[in-house]
Amino acid sequence: MASRKMPPPRPFAMGEVRKRLRGSKIIYEERDGLATEMLAMAAAKITDVVEWDDAGKVTIKSVEDIPAGSLAAIKKVKVTPTRNGDQIEVEMIDKVLLMGMLAKSAGLLDTEKEADKPSVVGIEMVMPDDTK
Q1: Residues contacting 77, CB < 8 A, separation 6+
Q2: What is the pLDDT of residues 13-37, one digit of tens each?
């Protein structure tokens, strides 16, 4: 069995740390806009993107008719040519994952503090002796 050699450690680069901190600052300053965008994506529905008639024919709406939040929520559009015409597949983002991230960032998933809970007091009753 051949042993793998580990690459040498990279030298510490202060520039990388500054880039990471600058990115965090940008995210922190734009957090309201990010939250609004994420909420719009979480509210997106497939009916914002496609429509179907009573005969069951499905068509994609034009880009101008799709709300911006729904456009951002589209993960993939795949067109496959077939004998009966093009088959279109529209995949939306994972709403459960997105809503979980929103709930976590809003603090809805935090556990309650122990200080706010009532204390349990134990009472021990001592009865008089019956040995008289």
Answers
A1: 60, 88, 89, 90, 91
A2: 555 656 665 667 777 777 888 888 9
